[in-house]
Inverse folding.
């Protein structure tokens, strides 16, 4: 006989407290359930059930076997669900959390292509600059930049971005250009208040030494685009990710503050809750992001 069928019959008898109710639940005859359980006990060489005229209960061995059998049956059910889900058409609402500047500059421009490819999926993209708890706050996935600090999440690297200190040519013409990290103490710095420890810039010297610049910002802004605009207008030096400064740098609106410094790199990741299988709508969106950013090469810019 089939082992899973024997397990199912046995666990159903335990769950229902008897052969009659177990048979009704399984949609088979009482004698069929009895045969499955008897075959299981014969194969294992152990009595799993105490049978009386009034009730049926598991033996000590039967109770231990029940726990493992239930786990096996649950895994089998999830395996079936996995195959079904993987063949299902992606559909439904996908709730995404992403940092405001990255969402505006990098995700918004490509969302139309995704929605056209998957017309049965709707997207709710929340732009914010705080760390969200995906499960408790009801998000399907997030796009995060920097260190991966939550081992409970499934992670896929999408690309990398770089960070540079930049300022406008007008600023350098007025205040001069810093030649080394220590020179930053004599310059006007622009800070991004939504970034943790925004008043501390972590830099790498040409020697490879890790340095930290701690100084009050002449201007502090909670929006990356506004910070870039202030930089372009000549108000000071800002430390920005490439998806903000790249276009302005190509146009000559900003320049490297200290060109000799190594470029700081940060990974960009799609993260979502771990599970036995991923919903088709989430898998479709993650696969889309992986392909979209791969087409841009190893860096966003």
């Amino acid at each position: 006989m089939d082992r899973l069928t024997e397990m199912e019959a046995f666990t159903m008898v335990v769950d229902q407290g008897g052969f009659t109710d177990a048979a009704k639940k399984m949609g088979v005859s009482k004698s069929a359930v009895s045969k499955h359980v008897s075959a299981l006990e014969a194969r294992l060489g152990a009595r799993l059930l105490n049978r009386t005229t009034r009730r049926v209960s598991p033996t000590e061995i039967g109770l231990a076997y029940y726990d493992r059998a239930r786990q096996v049956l649950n895994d089998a059910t999830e395996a079936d669900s996995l195959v079904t889900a993987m063949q299902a058409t992606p559909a439904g609402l996908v709730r995404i959390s992403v940092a405001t500047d990255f969402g505006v500059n990098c995700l918004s421009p490509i969302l139309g292509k995704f929605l056209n490819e998957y017309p049965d999926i709707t997207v709710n993209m929340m732009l914010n600059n705080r760390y969200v708890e995906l499960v408790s706050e009801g998000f399907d996935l997030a796009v995060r930049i920097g260190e991966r600090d939550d081992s409970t999440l499934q992670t896929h690297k999408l690309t990398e971005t770089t960070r540079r200190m930049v300022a406008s040519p007008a600023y350098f013409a007025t205040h001069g250009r810093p030649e080394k990290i220590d020179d930053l103490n004599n310059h006007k710095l622009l800070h991004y208040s939504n970034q943790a420890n925004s008043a501390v810039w972590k830099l790498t010297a040409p020697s490879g030494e890790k340095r930290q610049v701690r100084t009050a910002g002449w201007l502090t802004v909670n929006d990356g685009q506004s910070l870039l605009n202030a930089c372009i207008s000549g108000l000071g030096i800002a430390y920005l990710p490439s998806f903000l400064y790249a276009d302005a740098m190509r146009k000559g609106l900003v320049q490297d503050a200290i060109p000799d410094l190594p470029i700081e790199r940060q990974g960009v990741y799609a993260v979502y809750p771990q599970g036995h299988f991923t919903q088709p709508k989430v898998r479709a969106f993650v696969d889309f992001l992986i392909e979209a950013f791969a087409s841009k090469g190893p860096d966003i810019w």
Summary: The radius of gyration is 30 Å. The CA atoms of residues 39 and 45 lie 10 Å apart. The domain at 92-151+275-294 is CATH 3.40.190.10 (D-Maltodextrin-Binding Protein; domain 2).
